[in-house]
Structure formats: C-alpha cells, structure tokens
Amino acid sequence: MKGSFAMATPVVQTLAEQKRALMLEKLVRELGPTIVAALEDPKVVEIMLNPDGIVWLDVLGEGMRDSGDRMRPSRAENLLGTIAAMLDTTIDRQRPTLQGELPLDGSRVQGVLPPMASAPLFSIRKRATMVYTLDDYVASEILDPAHARELRRAVRERENILIVGSTGSGKTTFANAILNEIAACADDRQRVVIIEDTFELQCAAPNTVVLHTTDTIDLTDCLRITMRLRPDRIVVGEVRDHAALALLKAWNTGHPGGVSTVHANSAQAGLLRLEQLMAEYRDTRPQPHLIAEAVNLIVFISRTPQGRRIREVVRTRGFANGAYVLENVPGDNHAGHDTP
C-alpha cells in the first residue's frame, strides 16, 4: 500500500513498540485502501460509514459523495474494536459508543455499535492538513473582499470573533483562516492559548500553547488553567456548554483578540446560543450585556447543496431594549459564495 500510512518495517526496540506497530498494520488493513487514500487526500474533510455499509466522503468543493467502498458489519466492528484497544478503552454492546483520536493521524473518531444502531457506523473527522487563508476564500469568491478587510482589521485590533454555523458547515476551517491572520500579526510577546477537544486548530504564531480536554478535564477546567498561563489571546475550538461563561469573562478581563465557534443557525442565534450555554452553569441568569461586550464580530457560515456559504459578517453594537444591537458589515459584492 502506497502513501504516508503504508507500513514500512519499523525499528522495534521494545515489546510495547512492537505491539503498537502490529496494531497499526492491523488498523490499516481494516480501514482498507479507499479509506486510507481518503485520509491522505487533503480535499477530504470527513469519512462516514452508514449502517447499510456505504462509506461516504465529504469533499471540499464537492460535498458528500459515495466512495464506492462497502464495509461489512464484521469488518466495521473489528475496526472499531482495534481503535478502542489502541486508545485503551472498550466498545461493545454494553458500551456501544467510541470517541477519540484515530491512532494513525489524530483524526476525530465517533463510532457506534448495535443496539444503538442497526449496524456499526462511524464518522472520522480529519484534522486539517491545509490551512485556507482569507485570500484563498476571496480568490474562490467565498468571502467578500470587504469582509476580509474587516476581519483583518478585527484581528489587528484584537477584537473577539465568533464563528457560527451548524455541524459540518466549515467553522473550524474558517477558524484556521483567522488563526493564520493572528499568526501574521502576533509577535513573540503575544501569547496565544488554544483550547480544544481534539487537535484541529493550527496556529503558526511563535508563542502558542495548545491545551486538550480529557475525560477528567473539561473546557471550563482548561480555561481556568489558561488564566494561569499568562495568555494574551484565548482561542476555543468550540464552546458547547457552560464554559461559555468562563470564556466570555476571560475575553472581557484583559485577554481580547480571541476566536471561538458555536453551533447556531444565524449570527443573532449564535448570541442567543451563548446565553443558553451560560445558563447551564448553576442556573446562571442571562447576561446579554456581557455577551455583547465580549463578542465584537460574528461570522455566520452555512452548508447548502451547492457548497458552504458565508451568509453574514455582523458587528455587535451592544444590547438595548431587550435585544442585541447588530450591524451588518457591508460587502463589495453583496453576495454569499460557495466555500472550499
């Protein structure tokens, strides 16, 4: 098998290394050539197995397509079992779910076995191997040039940017484009701390620290630790629980210039979603004024049959008369475009 995942004869020094090498060979065989090739293809974002045995690929610029690969339930169950063993965990009918990082490349894996589903299924969300810049988005007529200028200005002036969209809408890819801008303007004295569940964000800034949640250390814990690591900019891959409160407080207390993503269906809905997440912390009352002060710019990106589209770039102007005061950033072209 060709490619970066092909198994060359390793130099084995210990029994543990020998066992891991054998397990990696087994994992590659169980994945099969189609999935291995998809893992090596920078245009493939996600690999999904449905219970009917069809393997689907989410490809940049194309959307979903049938890979042509068919996986029997026994092969899929063995594959998930191998991944679980390499992650020192278990997946079986009593514990029918698996989540973690693919031992080959760190891609995010979510697996499910019966009885939760009629047959084994999984989704492999790949780590980004290419960083699309704002220039790439503009060149592909994805991002309006005026919006790109506004985003660059926001990064330079250390404003907080919230990227909003549904699952698979391209939030993380766009966040990496923003991080690329941060790296371009951050010097050695500007310390960037990135917090995420799985390693998906990439930042080339020279003074960068990446923290990873675990089964025992959640996002709120990571944010608490971050405050003792002397951060200048705080970036959260995705805020999905009451950690939203800790993040917004951090942004508002001398750590501006951050980036985060949240699941919602519009720019305004993104702010309302933050309210809901904050309320999960010991029945905290809504704090819209805190949100309006912390979030300076909102980017809403959505997924359509024609591709991903950036729908809105919105500035937050405050909270008054029971509503967020939002201002749409005008574009040069006044149109949304397909994303990569």
Q: What characteristic shape results from the CA principal axes?
A: globular
Query: Within the largest sheet, what's the order of strands?
Result: 9-8-10-11-7-12-13-14
Number of helices: 9
Taking all Cα atoms into account, the compactness measure Rg is 21 Å
CATH homologous superfamily (4th level) name of the largest domain: P-loop containing nucleotide triphosphate hydrolases
CATH class of the largest domain: Alpha Beta
Low-pLDDT sequence parts: 335-340
In terms of quaternary structure, what is this?
single chain
Give a quick account of the main beta sheet: strands, pairing sense, barrel closure: 8 strands, mixed
Helix percent reads 25-40%
Bin the strand percentage. Answer: 25-35%
Alpha-beta content class: alpha/beta
Distance between the termini: 29 Å
The helix/strand series, from N terminus to C terminus, equals: HEEEHEEEHHEHEEHEHEHHEEE
* CATH architectural designation of the largest domain: 3-Layer(aba) Sandwich
Number of domains: 2
> How much is the average pLDDT?
90
* Strand runs, count: 14
Characterize the structure shown:
The protein has helices at residues 15-40, 73-86, 134-139, 145-156, 171-185, 219-226, 243-252, 267-279, 288-294, and strands at 44-49, 54-59, 63-70, 97-101, 108-112, 121-125, 161-165, 192-196, 208-212, 233-236, 259-263, 297-304, 307-320, 323-328. A hairpin with a 6-residue loop joins β4 (97-101) and β5 (108-112). The protein is of the alpha/beta class. The protein has two domains: 15-125, Beta-Lactamase (2-Layer Sandwich); 134-328, P-loop containing nucleotide triphosphate hydrolases (Rossmann fold, 3-Layer(aba) Sandwich), CATH 3.40.50. It has an eight-stranded mixed sheet with strand order 9-8-10-11-7-12-13-14, sandwiched between helices. It has a six-stranded antiparallel sheet with strand order 3-2-1-6-5-4, with helices on one face. Helices cover 33% and strands 26% of the residues. α1 crosses α2 (73-86) and α4 (145-156) crosses α5 (171-185). The chain has nine helices and 14 strands.
